[in-house]
Design brief:
The protein is built from eleven helices and seven strands. It has 280 residues and is mainly α. The strands form three sheets. A three-stranded mixed sheet has the order 1-2-5. A two-stranded antiparallel sheet has the order 3-4. The protein has a two-stranded antiparallel sheet with strand order 6-7. Helix 5 packs antiparallel against helix 7.
Length: 280
C-alpha cells in the first residue's frame, strides 16, 4: 500500500487506542453508578466485546457509544439517574418511543462517549429468538463490569445485523460484523458452540458460501443454498440491487404509515414538528 495510506491507518489506530483507555474508565463509572442504584443491566455490543477481551488489542475495534441493556421496568429510573450524573438527552423532538429499542441518546459534555440505554435488543417487539430475560440473566463480571455472556453476545451480534441493520432482508453483509463474530467464536471455542437454526442465522452463515470464509463452514447450513446463491447472483446486478432496496424501503414506509397518521391526528407536537421540518 502507499506510504500515506499506511500512515493514515496507523494514526487512526493510535487515536482509537487512546479512546479505548478512556472508554474503559467511563464504562466502569457507569457500571458502579448502576450497581449502586440496583439497576438490573448488562453491557452489550462493542462495549461488551472490549470488556470480554475478544481482541488481541483494544485498538482493533472502533466504538461509537456505550450500549447498555436495562430492565424495561427500570428504564425511566435509569434514564433520570444518568441525567442526574450529567448525561442529558440529545434529541429534543422524539416520537414513537414505544417502537424504538433504546431510549433517547444521552450525552455528557465532560465525557467522551455517549450512552444508549436499551429497553430491548431487536427493533421488532415480537421477536421470539432473543429477549431481555435471556440476556440479563446470563452474564459474567469482568473488571467489575456486568457483561452479557459470550454466547449471547455472539447470537445478538448476528440478530442485530440481520434484523436491526436489515442484513437479512437486503441480503447484505458487513465485514466488521463478521470479524466480531469470528473473534467471539474464537474466544468461546468452536467446539463449545451450539447455535440453533432459524431463518436469520441460516442466512447469515449461508452468506459464507458466497464470501468463501472458511472459518464459518462449521456453522453453514446446507438448506436453501441453491436459492440463495441465485439471489446473490441476481443482486450482483446494480439495477436489480437498487430495485430490491427500493422495495424494502417502500415496505418499511407502508408499515409505518398508519402509526404516523394516528400521531398526526392525535399529537399536536408531532404536527408542529413536521411543519417545522417541512419549512426548513
Amino acid at each position: 500500500f502507499p506510504d500515506d495510506f499506511i500512515n493514515y491507518i496507523k494514526k487512526i489506530y493510535e487515536l482509537n487506542y487512546d479512546r479505548k483507555k478512556i472508554l474503559k474508565k467511563e464504562i466502569l463509572d457507569l457500571s458502579n453508578l448502576l450497581v449502586k442504584n440496583n439497576i438490573e443491566h448488562v453491557f452489550i455490543k462493542g462495549r461488551a466485546f472490549i470488556n470480554s477481551d475478544i481482541y488481541s488489542n483494544i485498538g482493533e475495534r472502533m466504538i461509537g457509544d456505550i450500549d447498555i441493556l436495562i430492565n424495561n421496568n427500570q428504564s425511566k429510573v435509569a434514564f433520570e439517574l444518568l441525567e442526574s450524573y450529567g448525561y442529558l438527552g440529545k434529541e429534543k423532538n422524539r416520537f414513537f418511543e414505544e417502537e424504538k429499542k433504546h431510549l433517547n441518546r444521552q450525552v455528557n459534555k465532560k465525557k467522551l462517549f455517549a450512552v444508549e440505554l436499551h429497553t430491548r435488543l431487536i427493533d421488532n417487539k415480537n421477536f421470539k429468538y432473543l429477549n431481555n430475560k435471556m440476556m440479563l440473566s446470563n452474564f459474567f463480571v469482568n473488571n467489575g463490569i456486568k457483561t452479557a455472556s459470550l454466547k449471547n453476545q455472539l447470537i445478538h451480534n448476528i440478530y442485530n445485523y440481520q434484523c436491526n441493520d436489515a442484513g437479512y432482508f437486503l441480503l447484505n453483509y458487513s465485514y466488521r460484523n463478521l470479524f466480531d463474530t469470528y473473534m467471539l467464536i474464537k474466544k468461546i471455542g468452536r467446539k463449545n458452540i451450539i447455535i440453533g437454526s432459524d431463518r436469520y442465522i441460516d442466512r447469515y452463515f449461508i452468506i459464507n458460501n458466497y464470501l468463501q470464509i472458511e472459518q464459518f463452514n462449521h456453522f453453514s447450513h446446507k438448506t436453501k443454498k441453491i436459492i440463495l446463491n441465485l439471489m446473490f447472483l441476481a443482486l450482483k446486478n446494480k439495477k436489480i440491487k437498487s430495485l430490491w432496496i427500493q422495495i424494502y424501503k417502500m415496505k418499511k414506509k407502508i408499515k409505518w404509515l398508519p402509526k404516523q397518521i394516528k400521531e398526526i391526528l392525535m399529537n399536536k407536537k408531532y404536527r408542529d414538528y413536521l411543519l417545522k421540518k417541512l419549512k426548513s
